[in-house]
Each structure stands twice: as C-alpha cells, then as structure tokens.
Amino acid sequence: MGLYEISGQRQMDFMKKFDYIREAGTEGEKKAAETILQELKSFGVEGRLESFEIDTCRIQEASFSVTEPYKKEYVIAGYGRSGSTPSGGVEAPFCYVENGDDISLSYGKGKIVLVNQPVTCDLYNRLVEAGVSGFLTITGNPTDQGIDRIPLERSLRKMKETPIQGGILHYTDAVEMVEMGASRARLRIKQEYGKGISHNVIARIPGSDPAGEILTLTAHYDSVPAGKGAYDNMAGAAIIMELCRYFSKHRPRRTMEFVWFGAEEKGLVGSRNYVTVHEEELKNHAFNMNVDLAGQLVGGTVVGVTGDVSVCHMIEYMAHEAGIGMVTKNSIWGSDSNSFAWKGVPAMTLNRDGFGMHTRYDTIEYISPWSLQRSAQLLGYIGDRLGNIPVMPFKKEIPENFRMELEEYFKRIS
Ligand SMILES: [Zn+2]
After folding, report:
1. Rounded to the nearest whole angstrom, what is the distance from the C-alpha of residue 292 to the centroid of ligand 1?
2. What is the pLDDT along the chain (414 residues), one digit of tens a residue?
3. How does DSSP classify residue 147?
4. Which sign, positive or negative, has the C-alpha torsion 306, 396, 266, 380?
C-alpha cells in the first residue's frame, strides 16, 4: 500500500469544516452529513444519506435548593431521560450515599440522595429499589474554575419507567452541602421527549471481484451536546474519509463500504439502524473496521477486536508489517463495531487514548496531523491487506462469550 499517499494535513483540513456541535437530530448533524457528501463528490465518489428516526429529549428546567438547615439554590444540570418531577418539584430529606453501596443506600429511602458516579441504568434501578425520592450526581473536580463549575447535562439510556428524577451538581457544591449538613432539599426537573431525524452517510467502492465479500470502514460523525467532538469522533470520520479517497483510486478486490454513522452518542442508533436495514446483505460482510476516538498526539493505539482471538493476532502481525505501534484487546467495545458483531460480523474499533471526551474541551486545537496520518496509515494497511487477500484469513464467527455480552449490552441500551 502506498502509505505515503495518506495525508494527515488533508484530514486536518477536512476536520476544520466541522468545528461545531453535531448532536444527533439537530441542524448541526444534518449540515455535517451534507458536508461529508460534498467531500466525497470532490474526489468523484457518490455518497448517499440513509435517514432514520431518533428519540430526542430536551431539558426545560433543572433546579435544586437546600431548604434545611440553611437555604441556598445550587446550579445543576438535569439528567436527561429521567422524566419530570411534579411541577412544584420534589421536597425531601437529603442524604449523601457515596458510591451507592448497600449500606449507604439503606439510609436513602424517601430521600433525595447525592451519589458520586454517573448514574447508569443499573445504578438507577438500584436507587429505585432503595426507594429514594430523587438523585444528584457529582461532576467535575475541586480545581475547576469559571465555566467549568457549571455542570453539563448527562442522559440515562432510554428506559421504560423512570419513577425518580435526577440532576448533576458540581463537586465544589457537593462538598459544601455535605459539610454544611444539608438535611432537606427540593429538586425540580422538567423535560420534553420528542422525535428527530438522524442520517448515516454511505459511500460504496465496488470491489474488482463481483462475487467478493464486503468490508466496512466506519466512524460516527455526531457529537454529544456538550462539545464539538473533534477527538470523539470527527477525527475518526476524517481517517475513513482519507481512506475512502485512497481506495477510490486503488480499487480493492473486495467491495468496501464506508459509513459515517449518525446518532452514535444516542446509543449506537445509526449503526443499529444500518445493520437492521441491511440485515439481508450482512451475510456477505466479512469484517467491520471502525474508528472511535482518534487524532490526539499523546496517546497509544488500542484495537478492540470483537471476534476470534486469531483476528487479534492477524492485526498485530499487520501492524508489525506496517511498523506502527499498537496493542489489541479482545473484547466487546462500546462503539459502532458492536452493532456488526451483534449481527455476527467480526469487528474492530481503532481507538487512541486522549482527553476531553464528551466535554467542551474536545476541540480541533488538540488534534494532530501526525496522529491522524499514523492512524489512517495503520487502518489503511489493514484495510488494504484484507481488501486484496485472496481468502479471508479468519472465520466469520463471534465467540460465544461475546455473543452473550452483546445480547446483554444491546438489551441495556435499547
Ligand atoms: Zn465516540
């Protein structure tokens, strides 16, 4: 493969066109999808949009105040998808339950509880079981200043029932409340659920062997509402764009489908839609190569492989050939590769560590052309070998333990 044809600077220039928030279902995401289509056109590839409906949630009000033994209103953000309190709010005793262990939670019945970590669906259900009246979770750290003292919204995954509501409070305020002995509080959350439209952008490079299998190269281009998602994951979107450009000029034996997924941040909604709509064709899919989190200079590369361990060995061998550092991890992965593996297609996600994910600091100023170039070279090398190898070097199988974990995973997020 002509690794020298891969340009980090060109990926960087592409990324600069997406210096805005691209939350699924919003104008930002739509505009980004159109820009991806234009970019494809600029090197002669005709892409298309595949649109689908998503559930949206808008928080209209989130307020919290301590009412006893002192009175003070604190700035909080609302916990999306936790529903709305009665219009007057919920007033109840207040209690700090740390990580939500059983002992701490045994004091939480009928109270608004303060809990450390982000509330996952599992923890949410435990809070409900413990009979709490509402919850606040802690964000940030004591060194935050200025705008960083303002908590950002988080969201639960979609759940059938949400009897209790929650908010997010800054670390410094949490410390103050506990030290001042807050014993009673009022929480008010109002949110509205609706529907929106999100889009996958798809471009196909037909392989020279018409009977051949299909390989997918994928990356999500939507962002969370909190930030511009340069590292997570416009960098991944740029990497596969660079590879689409390369493979459109060096047509491989196998067909390559490039997909920029929408609504990944809403629970892999774009990729789940893709594997459902194209379920019939998945019998021809041999492998999914996904990128999620990339482009920062300081970091190491991990390829998460959801498939037989032999796929890890194969990728490590190819990385040795390319001479680009990385390690593999054989497990399921919280990104769009999971959707493929769930439907029986071995999959990987290329992931580079970095900082700022899901924050307002996830911006292009921390992205490095050097890093983009290397990751695109590595993924391109793997794609080129698998695109042209006469016989795929591994079985199309998902190990039993991963299949079970994936069933659990998708049950949790749907
Ligand atoms: Zn991501």
Report:
1. 5
2. 677 899 999 999 999 999 999 999 999 999 999 999 999 999 999 999 999 999 999 999 999 999 999 999 999 999 999 999 999 999 999 999 999 999 999 999 999 999 998 898 889 999 999 999 999 999 999 999 999 999 998 889 888 889 999 999 999 999 999 999 999 999 999 999 999 999 999 999 999 987 789 999 999 999 999 899 999 999 999 999 999 999 999 999 999 999 999 999 999 999 999 999 999 999 999 999 999 999 999 999 999 999 999 999 999 999 999 999 999 999 999 999 999 999 999 999 999 999 999 999 999 999 999 999 999 999 999 999 999 999 999 999 999 999 999 999 998 877
3. G
4. positive
Q: At what angle do helices 8-15 and 369-388 cross, to 10 degrees?
A: 110
What is the CA(236)–ligand 1 centre distance, in A?
9
Tell me phi and psi for residue 301, to 5 degrees: -105, 130
Q: 265 C-alpha vs ligand 1 centroid, how far in Å?
A: 7
Distance 294 CA to ligand 1 centre (A): 9
* CATH fold for the domain made of 3-56+195-413: Aminopeptidase (3.40.630)
Domain ranges of the chain: 3-56+195-413, 70-182
**Identity (one letter) of the amino acid at 185?**
A
Centre of ligand 1 from the C-alpha of residue 232, in Å: 5
Does the fold of domain 70-182 match that of domain 3-56+195-413? no
Partners of 193 in beta bridges:
57
* Distance from Cα 105 to the centre of ligand 1, integer Å: 33
| Residues in the chain, total | 414
Ligand 1 centroid to Cα of residue 278, in Å, is 22
70-182 — its CATH code?
3.50.30.30
